[in-house]
Amino acid sequence: MISDINIRVNRELCFACGICVESCILDNLRLSMAPCRQACPIHMNCQGYIRLIALGKEQKAAEEMRMTSPFANILGRICSHPCEVTCERGKIDGSVHIRALKRYLADSFPDITLSLPKTARDSGRRIAVIGSGPAGLAAAYELRLRGHAVTVFEADTDPGGLLRNVIPSFHLPISEVEKSTTMLLSMGTNFITGEPIGKKIEFGRLEKEFDAVIIAVGAGAPIKPDIPGQDLDGVIQGPDLLRKIKTGQKPQLGQSVIVIGGGNSAVDVAISCRLLGVKEVQIICLERPDEMPAYELSLQKAKNAGIIVENCWGPTSFIQGDDRSIKIEFSRCMTVFDDQGRFAPDLEPTCGLTLQADTVVMAVGQKVNFKDLPEELIDPVSGRFIADPITLQSNINPIIFISGECYSGTATVIDAMASGTEAAISADRFVNRDGLHWGRDFWKGPYLKDYSVHHDQAIGGSRCKLKYTPAAKQTIDQEMEITLSAIDAKKEAERCLSCGRSFEANKTCLYCLPCEIECPVDALEVRMPYQIR
Ligand code: SF4
Ligand code: SF4
Fold it and tell me: What is the architecture, at CATH level 2, of domain 1-32+500-528?
């Protein structure tokens, strides 16, 4: 399918930016997309910035990254990196460390990666965003770009939502979140903090005063399974504990903690407890090791910190001991999911394990807290807001759009940001009286999923090993991971196989040359017959 007859692309130089594709007036070219970019929910050109680092053009790499998102400093630290899961280099000796390279650029070129964009002329439209987590921040950015007056309402005293208040500082320091909120403030975003909607400001007032409203309240309320004794003093909720720690409080946890849950939140809680000096920390979860939703890297960090993980157990009761410690009875979990893949844990009827700890932390999932928001917007079965899956527009009131976890359920930060952007695109079109559905399918553009890759051209060694603050020096409020050095970043970038490229797709070339002229790195040659040239 990929042809080099009239158009020849030098894969050493091409960074798959797609400029040539856009400049071809005869619709001849297409961009074959690298699998990393295909997997990215915001389709960031990871191949592009990686190739540019490998070529020593780091500033240009930072600019390429900035074009897709202004949140690289956050994503470079905590993105779930679906790009790395599909990376072709992973089939050889470990995927390219795409997230670490993103962080390298964000930390090395903050003037570029956090630069203020040019915003469109004032549209005269007012749009409210409720919630300032990843979805809310992404929506606010997109709307300000398009010239709308944006007011973000945040229940907490500072903007940032879970990025600021829940994700531990050893992954994402508050200062990094503040860089993003400061950028949004400088773009003219109005933040109203400490104002949960439904207290002083009613939701109905927003419907009257704004041209559109985006709900991005996340899913921050802990799920409390119906287990006897779960309201005892020593049984606490993971999100509450993480919030307390993030605000600088030092909770009294005792000498031993058992964390119930198999996701990232459970692992974050467990590591936090160890950093706060708890001697014995265990994670107990329903899932088998290969079913745990927690990232492998996080689990490895937990195990390195001496945290024990026990799989395939579900708690059935909590009992307070005389010394105020908590006794927990567990039953063996036979299966976690039913035949259709739905969460439906099947526990043995008898108790198979009894453990005791000073504190039990429940970290088994979160749900939407829709208190004080209109009930008619919510699906009573899923407990989430209802919206059109493509446009995210509410089917109850057309001025309302839903984004992030309060629509999708538990999601990653990058998924929530992608959703916030989509809701903003819809709200922008709505206030401009434009159609909401057109052009929403990314794959109907000039991008193709087919790509060609040459594994035999792989150079360099295996995936780089990240460096961390030595264990003895780790603290609860200091970042653990260390930014790649310039030398390591270049080495890692050179491992990329440059899977995507532009190519001649339609054989309509008339040798008119804009593609060759526009290519910023002279990677493309139009192969003209010598009579014409
Ligand atoms: S080898 Fe490079 S271009 Fe290919 S998937 Fe991995 S990072 Fe992307
Ligand atoms: S050939 Fe040049 S313009 Fe086209 S995708 Fe590659 S780098 Fe971009």
Answer: 2-Layer Sandwich (3.30)
Q: Is 20 in the pocket of ligand 2 (CB under 6 A)?
A: yes
Span 364-403, pLDDT tens digits: 989 998 888 888 999 988 889 999 999 999 999 999 999 9
Pocket of ligand 1 (CB under 6 A): 34-36, 46-47, 50, 87-89, 96, 98, 496-499
Q: Which residues of the chain are under the pLDDT cut of 70?
A: 1-3, 530-533
pLDDT tens, 80-126? 999 999 999 999 999 999 999 999 999 999 999 999 999 999 999 99
Atom of ligand 1 nearest to the CA of 35: 5
Distance from the alpha carbon of residue 31 to the mean position of ligand 1, in angstroms: 15
State how far the Cα of 165 lies from the Cα of 123, in Å rounded to an integer. 33
What pLDDT score was predicted for residue 531? 61
pLDDT of residue 296: 86
In 451-511, the DSSP E strands lie at 467-468, 481-482, 501-504
Mutate to test the pocket of ligand 2, among 6, 8, 15, 17 (most ligand atoms within 8 A of CB): 17
What mean pLDDT is reported for the chain? Answer: 94
Q: How crowded is the C-beta side of 342, counted as CA atoms within 13 Å?
A: 3
- Domain covering 126-220+368-431 assigned CATH 3.50.50.60 in the classification: yes
Cα 29 from Cα 507, distance rounded (Å): 9
Q: Which ligand is nearest to the CA of 37?
A: 1
* pLDDT for the residue numbered 1: 61
Atom 2 of ligand 2, nearest CA residue: 519
Q: Which CATH number fits domain 224-364: 3.90.1150.10, 3.50.50.60, 3.40.50.2300, 1.10.10.60?
A: 3.50.50.60
Q: Which atom of ligand 2 is nearest to the CA of 518?
A: 3
> 459 by DSSP, 3-state: which?
coil
Residue 359 main-chain phi, psi, to 5 deg: -135, 140
310 forms beta bridges with: 284
